[in-house]
Amino acid sequence: MPQTVTHVRDLADVVGSFLGHSAWHEITQRQVDLFAEATWDDQWIHTDPERAASGPYGGTIAHGFLTMSLTPTLLAEIWRVEGVDMTVNQGLDNLRLRAPVPVGALVRMGADLLSTRTRPKGFAEVVVRLTFELEHDGRRQRAATADLTILLREAATVPR
């Protein structure tokens, strides 16, 4: 799948565009366990496959924030902005975790550029709508949605 490439000076021309999808990636129990260790969230629905097998989801599921933490990597598969020397995460709005992501499921992310505006110090503020999909047991559904705000600093503004 081709990556969309935009120069920072041309962001306004892309507003309202679907930027594309990432590749599909499998969620593994190892990922879930490492995320649980890093965040101290070892709830059994994430880390105990035996107990989770008889739980409400029929097996372990990824943490919602694990799914969201894939954003930088998956967005980089979808979209590259040229002429930028720094990207700063400003946060997520309208985050909704819509479906549990079972271990073994495939996930991908789609992205739409919602808006951009000029900010001080050579930054452009960009809002991207993220849509995470999952595929499991022959079913495909939305797993999560959110609006990501990032600041992109144009490389030409950096003193050399």
Kindly list the characteristics that best describe this protein.
single chain; 24% helix; 6 helices; two-stranded parallel sheet; six-stranded antiparallel beta sheet; 160 residues; alpha+beta
Architecture overview:
By secondary structure, this protein is of the alpha+beta class. Helices cover 24% and strands 45% of the residues. It is built from 6 helices and 8 strands. It is elongated and about 55 Å long.
Using only C-alpha atoms, the radius of gyration works out to 18 Å
Distance between the termini: 36 Å
- H/E element string? EHEEHHHHHEEEEE
Number of DSSP-assigned strands: 8
Count every helix, treating DSSP H or I runs of 4 or more residues as helices.
Answer: 6
Structural class based on helices, strands and sheet pairing = alpha+beta
Ranges where pLDDT stays below 50 over 5 or more residues in a row are none
* Shape, principal axes of CA atoms: elongated
> What proportion of the residues form beta strands (DSSP E)?
over 45%
Fraction of residues in H or I helices: 10-25%
Rounded average pLDDT: 94
Major sheet description: 6 strands, antiparallel
List the helices and strands and how they pair.
Blueprint: E1 4-7, H1 11-14, E2 18-21, E3 25-26, H2 29-39, H3 44-47, H4 49-53, H5 64-69, H6 71-78, E4 79-82, E5 84-97, E6 106-119, E7 123-136, E8 139-154
Q: Could you write a compact summary of the structure shown?
A:
The protein has 160 residues and is an alpha+beta fold. Helices cover 24% and strands 45% of the residues. The radius of gyration is 18 Å and the shape is elongated.
